[in-house]
Amino acid sequence: MTSPHDPLAAVAAGVDPGPFALIRREGADHLDLLTGTVRTAARLADIPLPEGGPGPRTLALVPFRQIAERGFACVDDGTPLECLLVEGHRRLPLAEVVAALPDAPVRTREAAFDISDAEYAATVDRVLAEEISRGEGANFVIHRTLRATVQGDPLTAALAALRQLLLRERGAYWTFVVYTGSRILVGASPERHVSVDDGLVMMNPISGTFRHTGATPDPDALLRFLHDPKEVEELYMVLDEELKMMATVAERGGQVVGPYLKEMAHLAHTEYLLAGRGSRDVREVLRETMFAPTVTGSPMENACRVIARHERTGRRYYAGVLALLGRDADGRQTLDAPILIRTAELSPTGELRVPVGATLVRHSTTAGEVAETHAKAAGVLAALGLGPDAPEPGPTPAARLADDPRVRAALAARNAPLARFWLDQRAPGTAALPGLAGRRALIVDGEDTFTGMLAHQLGALGLAVHRRDWRHPGPVDRHDLVVVGPGPGDPNNLAEPKMAAMRALLVELLAGGRPTLAVCLGHQLLAGLLGLPLRRRDAPYQGLQRDVPVFGVTRRVGFYSSFTAHAEADRAATPYGPIELSRDPADGAVHALRGSGFAGVQFHPESVLSPDGLAVLADLLGHLLAHPALTRQGPAEQG
Asked: What are the Glutamine amidotransferase domain coordinates in residue numbering (predicted)?
């Protein structure tokens, strides 16, 4: 039959078609064909988004190295931010595109991972021992890359792979091929990173991988997966991390919807949707959400340091995004950006890269994470002739695992222990406490944007909240409350600049009698200042939910920590007056403390893992702000 569009005809004739993209969005019966010219941009803010009528304007290929725009560490491999400036846009029926795509096997040679299974397993062990157990974060994604050489025309091979993905893969958010003249990307990404439409910002954290052969999966095995603590906690942790991002780009933060089961040809994932209203420029939304914790880790800034330490090579486009920017019928900006995973990159000379990563958490095993990298690559590798195909779809749609009542019940049960603050619609003012209107709080961020979620909760309670990075000191006297926030690192290392600066701030606050709340790392530094010993836990409390005593009331809260303060009694004398402590009855670990005008909590009241977190904050604000502390000239006398 006649080709329905020129790029495919040009490729078939052996002619360079010029830059183009073919994109099928989830569930669509057509593909979008975008054609135009390509130019590079230095920053996300430089991505063109001209005025005009409705439709796509620019397709940006955002490499991982753009994370440097946020000041985060990365191995700079020089991969460019390329922009396809859309000059032509057509919708092509799915069946016609499949018929026009080349139906020939892709031939490759010299296929191998750049890091062997044994080497990758050793890296997993190092990250667990040197990073997670030492308090550097809750989870980290480490990648490896399968490399090969394509035999024959690389663009023809990419289009043949696209055909296989369209026929055999399912559940992909975007299935696509992009050709810029200097590179080709082809893939089936399961995950929306961020989208903006009609002012609605959405993100889509996906985590947990149920592997199967492509045949009918065993429902009992799926149920075991859905109840596996490692898989459950992994999804909760990335949910928390993307809620941090939504706290920045949506006016009232993100509302959690789900969870759902995303079913694909070789595996299934668990996922949530996050939604919130925002008014930022879509390029700012992209910048503030670089990049998904499902491909980096948390907390984000330190995850980037860990990635750079342990990978030692650039990621190119892996873990970046494709970003389609445009305008709607009313001229408002739109954005749709899938994560660049399950994607192959081909050079014009036939060099093939298929990067893939696994999420490492405290429950990880080396064998499990090695297997996960193979499973995640399976769909793209099959399309490239480097792995077994999934079974051909039959004449009727495959039965959905998510339709099994037991599966639905297991998914619904995941929300039972979570904080309703993030799951329910929140009308402004419904949680406000009397007497807080007009009072101001400053949150000092210790490199963990949990502070954004904390700001939304304190705002819901009635405070006007401002955030400040620990690197930018300034006056505190204009604020009724100062929150010394969370962050990664060893609180005993007071020579480290962040620890020294945050401890010095606490000294200033306590000496001046400024009402002070310390959270996680801030709490550890406060405890050390008060004379309590700080110790590393035998097993890290990363993404762990517990019932703990908090000043006489049992609270269910979430922890992200590897260190804790210890005390032998529920009360103690300190250089800043007597304090009351809430301790673990088994080992004396201090979960919370309070004194005259100050308080600290080791857990994260703002986390989705803290169903009692808002109540804890309300109680602490009552303690700290009902009767402002008297100004002190220095440490009080002990006794």
From this structure: 442-620
- Residues composing the chain: 639
CB 237 within 8 A of CB 541: no
451 by DSSP, 3-state: which? helix
State how far the Cα of 428 lies from the Cα of 430, in Å rounded to an integer: 6
Q: How many CB atoms lie within 10 A of CB 511?
A: 14
Residue with tokens 């490692």: 230
- Closest to 97 measured CA to CA, from 5, 177, 186, 189: 5
Measured between alpha carbons, how far is 102 from 116 in angstroms, rounded to an integer?
33
Q: How far is 189 from 175, CA to CA, in rounded Å?
A: 6
Structure confidence at residue 333 (pLDDT): 97
Query: Where along the chain do the CATH 3.60.120.10 domains lie?
Result: 7-392+402-414
> In this structure, are residues 614 and 620 in contact, taking their beta carbons and an 8 Å threshold?
no
> Is 3.60.120.10 the CATH number for 7-392+402-414?
yes
Residue 90 DSSP class: E
Given a cut of 50, the residues of the chain with pLDDT beneath it are: 1-4, 628-639
pLDDT at 391: 56
pLDDT of residue 219: 84
List the catalytic residues: 520, 604, 606
Concatenated DSSP letters of 375-387: HHHHHHHHHTTSS
Q: Would you list the DSSP string of 302-338?
A: HHHHHHHHHH-S--TTTT-EEEEEEE-TTS-EEEEEE
The closest alpha carbon to 391, from 553, 150, 216, belongs to 216
The three-state secondary structure class of 459 is helix
May I ask the CATH class of domain 425-625? alpha beta
Q: Model-level pTM?
A: 0.88
pLDDT at residue number 279 = 93
Residue-by-residue DSSP string for 476-543 = -TT-SEEEE----S-TT-TTSHHHHHHHHHHHHHHHHT--EEEETHHHHHHHHHTT--EEEEEEEEEE
Residue 140 CA, distance from chain mean position = 10
